Amino acid sequence: MPAIITGGVLEKDGKYLLIQEAKNDRGKWNLPAGHLDAGETIFDAAVREIKEESGLDVELSEVCHIGNGQKDRNSDPFITLIFTTKIIGGSIKYDPEEILDVKWFSYEEILSMRDQLRAENFILGAINNARNGLTVSTDIITIL
Protein backbone atom coordinates (compact mmCIF):
# COMPACT_ATOMS: atom_id res chain seq x y z
CA MET A 1 0.00 0.00 0.00
CA PRO A 2 1.38 3.45 -0.87
CA ALA A 3 2.63 5.58 2.02
CA ILE A 4 2.37 9.30 2.60
CA ILE A 5 5.29 10.84 4.47
CA THR A 6 5.08 14.38 5.80
CA GLY A 7 7.31 16.59 7.90
CA GLY A 8 9.21 19.83 7.91
CA VAL A 9 12.29 21.91 7.34
CA LEU A 10 13.12 23.68 10.60
CA GLU A 11 15.55 26.61 10.35
CA LYS A 12 16.94 28.68 13.20
CA ASP A 13 19.82 31.15 13.09
CA GLY A 14 20.91 29.88 9.67
CA LYS A 15 21.00 26.24 10.75
CA TYR A 16 18.71 23.33 9.88
CA LEU A 17 17.43 20.65 12.23
CA LEU A 18 18.14 17.03 11.37
CA ILE A 19 17.30 13.89 13.31
CA GLN A 20 19.49 10.79 13.45
CA GLU A 21 17.54 7.59 12.81
CA ALA A 22 17.63 4.82 15.43
CA LYS A 23 15.69 2.20 13.44
CA ASN A 24 15.36 2.32 9.65
CA ASP A 25 18.71 3.36 8.18
CA ARG A 26 20.18 3.51 11.68
CA GLY A 27 22.65 6.33 12.14
CA LYS A 28 21.57 8.24 9.03
CA TRP A 29 20.41 11.86 9.33
CA ASN A 30 16.98 12.91 8.10
CA LEU A 31 14.44 15.70 8.26
CA PRO A 32 11.86 15.25 11.02
CA ALA A 33 9.15 13.42 9.11
CA GLY A 34 7.03 10.31 9.19
CA HIS A 35 3.96 8.49 7.99
CA LEU A 36 0.46 9.86 7.86
CA ASP A 37 -1.76 7.87 10.23
CA ALA A 38 -5.38 6.92 9.61
CA GLY A 39 -7.72 9.78 10.48
CA GLU A 40 -5.04 12.49 10.26
CA THR A 41 -4.71 15.35 7.85
CA ILE A 42 -1.29 15.91 6.29
CA PHE A 43 -1.04 19.09 8.37
CA ASP A 44 -1.73 17.26 11.64
CA ALA A 45 0.70 14.49 10.72
CA ALA A 46 3.53 16.92 9.92
CA VAL A 47 3.10 18.80 13.21
CA ARG A 48 2.86 15.51 15.16
CA GLU A 49 5.90 13.92 13.52
CA ILE A 50 8.04 17.02 14.05
CA LYS A 51 7.01 17.12 17.73
CA GLU A 52 7.62 13.39 18.24
CA GLU A 53 11.03 13.44 16.60
CA SER A 54 12.37 16.77 17.88
CA GLY A 55 10.27 17.95 20.83
CA LEU A 56 9.56 21.24 19.03
CA ASP A 57 6.16 22.77 18.38
CA VAL A 58 5.75 24.30 14.93
CA GLU A 59 3.34 26.11 12.69
CA LEU A 60 3.46 25.01 9.08
CA SER A 61 4.23 27.87 6.71
CA GLU A 62 4.50 26.74 3.09
CA VAL A 63 5.01 23.60 1.02
CA CYS A 64 8.68 23.28 0.01
CA HIS A 65 8.83 19.72 -1.31
CA ILE A 66 6.57 17.18 -2.98
CA GLY A 67 8.21 13.90 -3.94
CA ASN A 68 7.36 10.48 -5.26
CA GLY A 69 9.48 7.35 -5.08
CA GLN A 70 9.90 3.72 -4.14
CA LYS A 71 12.79 1.80 -2.60
CA ASP A 72 12.84 -0.72 -5.45
CA ARG A 73 10.61 -2.01 -8.25
CA ASN A 74 8.81 -4.46 -5.96
CA SER A 75 8.10 -2.07 -3.10
CA ASP A 76 5.09 0.15 -2.60
CA PRO A 77 5.43 3.73 -3.78
CA PHE A 78 5.48 6.65 -1.38
CA ILE A 79 4.72 10.34 -1.58
CA THR A 80 6.55 12.94 0.49
CA LEU A 81 5.15 16.34 1.41
CA ILE A 82 7.44 18.66 3.36
CA PHE A 83 6.63 22.08 4.81
CA THR A 84 8.64 25.09 5.85
CA THR A 85 7.92 25.81 9.49
CA LYS A 86 7.95 28.42 12.22
CA ILE A 87 9.06 27.18 15.64
CA ILE A 88 6.53 28.30 18.26
CA GLY A 89 7.65 26.38 21.35
CA GLY A 90 9.03 23.25 22.92
CA SER A 91 12.61 22.17 23.41
CA ILE A 92 14.77 19.42 21.94
CA LYS A 93 13.45 16.15 23.31
CA TYR A 94 13.08 12.73 21.69
CA ASP A 95 12.56 9.03 22.31
CA PRO A 96 16.02 7.36 22.20
CA GLU A 97 14.44 4.15 20.91
CA GLU A 98 13.28 6.06 17.82
CA ILE A 99 15.90 8.81 17.44
CA LEU A 100 19.64 8.67 18.25
CA ASP A 101 20.24 12.42 18.18
CA VAL A 102 18.81 15.76 17.10
CA LYS A 103 21.17 18.54 15.96
CA TRP A 104 21.29 21.85 14.15
CA PHE A 105 23.60 21.95 11.12
CA SER A 106 24.68 24.75 8.82
CA TYR A 107 23.90 24.29 5.15
CA GLU A 108 27.61 23.78 4.46
CA GLU A 109 27.81 21.07 7.13
CA ILE A 110 24.86 19.25 5.57
CA LEU A 111 26.50 19.42 2.14
CA SER A 112 29.68 17.88 3.60
CA MET A 113 27.81 14.94 5.11
CA ARG A 114 25.93 13.73 2.03
CA ASP A 115 26.95 10.11 2.66
CA GLN A 116 25.43 10.34 6.15
CA LEU A 117 22.01 11.49 4.92
CA ARG A 118 19.16 8.99 4.74
CA ALA A 119 17.97 10.33 1.38
CA GLU A 120 20.26 13.03 -0.03
CA ASN A 121 17.97 14.19 -2.86
CA PHE A 122 14.97 14.39 -0.55
CA ILE A 123 16.73 16.27 2.27
CA LEU A 124 18.78 18.64 0.13
CA GLY A 125 15.86 19.19 -2.25
CA ALA A 126 13.56 20.31 0.56
CA ILE A 127 16.22 22.49 2.22
CA ASN A 128 17.28 24.04 -1.09
CA ASN A 129 13.68 24.81 -2.00
CA ALA A 130 13.13 26.44 1.42
CA ARG A 131 16.40 28.42 1.14
CA ASN A 132 15.60 29.63 -2.37
CA GLY A 133 11.94 30.48 -1.76
CA LEU A 134 10.75 27.73 -4.08
CA THR A 135 7.64 27.22 -1.97
CA VAL A 136 3.89 27.45 -2.35
CA SER A 137 1.15 28.41 0.02
CA THR A 138 -0.52 25.65 2.01
CA ASP A 139 -3.75 27.08 0.60
CA ILE A 140 -3.21 24.91 -2.50
CA ILE A 141 -3.94 21.86 -0.31
CA THR A 142 -7.59 20.95 0.07
CA ILE A 143 -8.63 18.66 2.89
CA LEU A 144 -11.64 16.69 1.65
Mean pLDDT: 96
Sequence of secondary-structure elements: EEEEEHEEEHHE
CATH superfamily: Nucleoside Triphosphate Pyrophosphohydrolase
Distinct helical segment count: 3
Low-confidence stretches: none
Q: Please state the second-level CATH architecture.
A: Alpha-Beta Complex
- How much strand? 35-45%
Q: In one word, what is the shape?
A: globular
Rg, rounded, reads 14 Å
CATH C-level label: Alpha Beta
Q: Helix- and strand-based class?
A: alpha+beta
Strand order of the largest sheet: 5-1-7-6-9
User: What is the end-to-end distance?
Assistant: 20 Å
**Sheet with most strands:** 5 strands, mixed
How many extended strands? 9
- Count of distinct structural domains: 1
Q: Within the CATH hierarchy, at the fold level, what is the topology? A: Nucleoside Triphosphate Pyrophosphohydrolase
